[in-house]
Amino acid sequence: VYKRQGKEGGKAMEFRPIRRNRQQLTQEQAWALLEQGSYGVLAVQGDSGWPYAVPLNYVCQAGSIYFHCAKVGHKLESIRRCEKASFCVVDRDEIKPEAYTTYYRSAIAFGRVRILESEEEKRRAIEQLSQKYHPMDTPAHRKAVIDREYAPLCMLAFTVEHMTGKQAIELT
């Protein structure tokens, strides 16, 4: 049985439910985990159909996740070929060797990635990303750094279409 959500080309999209649903986080908990994380792993369809997963800094805003990248490269070429992607954030990873287990908490989002074309949207996204990682910076210094690095910068928006979160049973 698959969970249905959204539409693609007139047909329902299907996502698998979490097998151990007692460990499932609520949507609010999964979003909170995403918003608080410091990095995640973006997975796209790479060259010759091979998966390509890359760790990235990111910022969440209004149902989207924003990343930065160069204007050329494997990640961007992959996204241009296929906009579908997944993004995973691990919030907790505590190994318990005596129990042969790990106490973990994670969220996986599925969605589509697009390249930001609007200068206004691109600027807003990089400012939010900068503020997340250096909240004590002054607005003037932040602007100067962004202006200096802006020309080769590409910004991506990942629109979440489906998300699940899960945690170790010991944390439930």
- The count of β-strands is 9
User: What count of helical segments does DSSP give?
Assistant: 4
Biggest β-sheet: count, sense, barrel?
A: 7 strands, antiparallel
Q: Give the overall shape.
A: globular
Computed structural class: alpha+beta
Mean pLDDT: 89
The unreliable regions are none
What value does the Rg take, in angstroms? 18 Å
Order of helices and strands: EEHEEEEHEEHHE
Gap between N and C termini: 24 Å
Would you mind describing this structure in some detail?
The chain is an alpha+beta fold and 172 residues long. The chain is built from four helices and nine strands, in the order ββαββββαββααβ. The protein has helices at residues 27-36, 74-81, 119-133, 139-149, and strands spanning 3-8, 11-15, 40-45, 51-56, 59-61, 64-70, 84-96, 101-115, 153-167. The strands form two sheets. Strands 4-3-7-8-9-6-5 form a seven-stranded antiparallel sheet, sandwiched between helices. The mean pLDDT is 89.
Nutshell version of this structure?
This protein has 172 residues and is of the alpha+beta class. It has four helices and nine strands.
Topology (elements, then pairings):
Blueprint: E1 3-8, E2 11-15, H1 27-36, E3 40-45, E4 51-56, E5 59-61, E6 64-70, H2 74-81, E7 84-96, E8 101-115, H3 119-133, H4 139-149, E9 153-167
Descriptive labels:
single chain, alpha+beta, seven-stranded antiparallel β-sheet, 26% helix, 9 strands, two-stranded antiparallel ribbon, 172 residues
